[in-house]
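[scheduler] slot 2 assigned
[scheduler] job type: sequence-to-structure, two independent chains
[scheduler] chain ordering preserved from manifest
[runner] begin chain α
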Amino acid sequence: MNIAVPAPHIVENKIICFNPVGYPPKVAKKSLAPRLESLDGKTVYLIDSRFDDSIELLKEVANWFASHMPAVTVRLVSLAGYYGRDDQELWSEIKANGHAAIIGVGHCSTCAPAVSTHAITMETKFGIPTVAIHTSMFDKVVRSVTRMGGLPDSPCVFVPQPVMGKSAPELRADVEGNDPVTGAPVMREIIEALTGNVASKHPAESERSTPRFVEAATEAELHDLFLRNNWTDQLPIVLPTQERVAAMLAATSQQADKVVGRMQPTPNRGSWEYTVEKVAVNAVMAGARPEYFPVILALAASEVTARGSTSSSGSAMVVVNGPIRQQIGMNCGIGAMGPYNHANATIGRAYGLLSQNLQGGSVAGDTFMGSLGNAYTYNSITFAENEERSPWEPLHVQRGYKAEDSVVSVFFGCRSTTFGLGLRKDYWREHVRDMLVAVDTVTAPVLLLDPITARQFIDRGGFDTKQKLIRFIHETAQMPAGRYWDMQLVQNYIYPNATLGVEPLATRLKAKPDELIPMFLEEAINVVVVGGETNGYWQIMGAKHRATVSIDDWR
């Protein structure tokens, strides 16, 4: 395959390159609620974010008030639902019955932004003096959130990481100790944030824009610039010159200045905007050929980031269906999920690069907080479904498209994987059940089946449609209710919705501890056929379907 790269545009021995960064959101400046003169005789709400033992630390805050400021009435409450839900009913209750709020704890890369966003909502929309408690690991994260939220001086107090799993005496020591970011006593900071004049510590956010080009420089200087600015995936890139970007743009009928979408590392970080041209710049950097560009545009249009800043270190997975698979030479056979095909590799890499650059960054310790990291993020496990060798309808047809449509689907998770070889005659059902128990419960199983295994599922179980197989997986993946509801991830993300009455979770919550309940929602389970039939190996990937987008719309 010829992968010739156009020569760069050179002016006086210097190269002109495009800037790969998206356009930041406009920030509307907001103001803090009036502070209280004193907390004496006042009611302060302590709001549990419902993440990883946050309530245990807030109990120690309540104990501190009882011991040191008994004239303060403290009400300890929990958010209704998971931590990202805007709990308008609770904010209204606090406005009616309280005087101030302390919300926490923000101690993951998604709950910390949510906690500070809730604090801003209470301050600016309900007039409630509020302070947010976070762990020090997320100092940069929440400062970014408060800036983007228009309230950079939103009070934040920090305690040591972690909160989860600590004993009451350990948490009490954190509450009675010093803020690891400022060095000041934690409780003194909280009281002063609710009562005194909160001095502005941050300059007003100036209007920001993204230049179209970077300053002309030599090839070596530009490569160094892109690396220093964290615009790469730490691997060499193709410089996005005018000629190369023009060639990429010629592969679509869309106008270069058309807005494709908006993206952010996590909710509450501020959605950055990007155009067709910006996507083309990142596609060039990844080494993609112009004929791949409609697929890359469709991925950008999904608005699902491949560089999500979850501390659980998730990765995207991309499945391409329809005629475009053959048109651009994608691999759906031997080694389809590995580094053995130019289209698969560079489309996936482009998705990662555009995600990090167009959402405003993916920098470890700032806009990326994945504790372990995930090697899958290098190309987001990008492959085509083996429709020709599959005994069932392809994924995009299941999603409502026609077989002749070209479509891309995005999944996210990819933190848990199990694999097996074929299906044994006697105990294959039990073997499948054992594999399913290893899938994390907050995503869902995606069965990645070699065609050999797909046919075996028909031979062994009579699953002549994907839906019949999915029903079997749903009924097989079960766990005792007590064990299921005790899992930390379930407590964080599923249990809050069950308590809100969301079905079928609410009904499952009523099950006795030893009663078996399904681990996953049936509609969340997916099956994809991929592989080259060198053997009947197959995998179960824990990943949640996030979007399916037409590629034809972006030709």
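[runner] end chain α
[runner] begin chain β
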Amino acid sequence: MSTSPREQHVFGTPRSPAAPNPRYVESVPQLLTTPTPVGLIQPPGVPRRPQTAAQLTSGQQQPAPKPKEKEPEYSTKLTEGTFTEHASHMPQHDDQVRPTMFDSRAFVDDPDYSHVPFMPELDQSPYASKYLNPTQRPWLEFGRGLYRYGPIPESSTILGETNLLSPSFLLYGDYRMGMGYIKNGDDKGVIANRLNLDFDLKLTDTERLHAFWGPLDQNTNFSRVEFDGDEFVYNEELDQNFDTFYFEGDIGSMYGGLIGEDAPFDMPVAVGFLPLLYQNGIWMEDAFLGAAVTIPAQNNRWLDWVNYDVTVFAGFNDISSPAFVGSGDGQTHMYGATAMIDAYDGYIEAGYAYLDDRTSANLGYHNLALGYSRRVKDFVSTAVRVIANTGQDPTSGVKTADGQMILWENAFITSQPLTFIPYANFFVGFDRTQSVARAAGAGGILRNTGINFETDGLTGYPTLDATGTNAYGGAVGVNWLGKDFDYQLVLELATVQTMGSPQERNAAGDQYALGVRYQVPLNNAWIFRADAMHGIRDNADDVSGIRTELRWKF
């Protein structure tokens, strides 16, 4: 029987063809000389080819190998294989970079899986057992769409070869239907509806036109049916105007497309009737006619700032604030800047804005905010925020924005840090502290303190006093989510304690509340939510409410 050369010789040793080794891999002839070291890694000497039978017969002898040196407990040199690198392949690096020593202690032996049963079906399951999760699609989508199947359509280079035009239109949002019983001065039942529509025309990867429309609401009033006993009243609150409409893009990408190069810098910009939200909506949450530009992803080694962004903004119309009257017709302008900084083992948010009142009331003032958030070991994630209003000198002498407020939020870390989160949030406010701009539907400045300070934006669900005017207090509770995030349960106690005379504050007296919230996703598109609260108010009627809501997201 004839055999192949591979079966006959391995390093010159005859091999029987009767029992071929299925794991056999053909060997690569060894080098006869030691390679010249190039680069940072010193290759060991390479042994010559072992002697063949012909060499042994002719009496030729190879030099005796040197005795192997005793290896130390650990090594700082490569001891196996060879490594020869051409000089042209050597990596380029900064002159300040230095190679590190190789240390075999940094590596361990491969794990031993001999005790694990071989189950090929299980090994294939990450690939062979994949399936599609049900996903809600936008109401309308044209062009590229949102994560559609199949190949991505070819883009146009009309805006430049580095700023490709790939139009895509999406219409998405949600529909909310709520029913509740409200006791807040008078007793009534409410069935309310709200439709939120987002229109998004994407032009390139960084440029888009966006608009938002709520056709079933006017300001904070929603199309609803109110009933008290046998009396039913329908209130129609239709709105044909868009709430926002703005252009958003990146100046660096647009400029790079014009000159035919990759974006030389990053500078996001937004212009139009745009919404801005800063410091979790506490310092600002409003939509107005204006513009904003950001300088992102900077760092400062001298201040030890790892990363920071700076945004400059301006507003010229429809600025909402309790500090002004008639702000919807351009009587108030706003100019400011905000920074977000990763530094000092935490996250810093700083902002300044000047509100320019262009009426004879002279209500203009300066608004400053500073926040610091961080995690303290495995105990708590905490955030401290300070807001200050200053510089107002009204003609009438009655100040509407002259306060200072401190807010302190804490989420405690438990053995189930993602699903069981106790929290304790506190505040203290002196005089009348205002956000820079705050839409009426956004609630008060204390909205994030707890669920007893947060209205639902639908049925007129009652809350404790959320202005923080000459008051202190807080909320303690627990946020409990299901193991698979399949439900949420929130239980909370909250209080407002008043300071000063009744004429200088919003709350007539001290307030206390117990609140509960439960919500659960019914499927990939529908969410059910229920809330209940009861508030005790000194020198005023108590408040209470119970509500349910169905929310359809699309």
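[runner] end chain β
[qc] chain β: The longest strand covers residues 284-300.
[scheduler] slot 2 released
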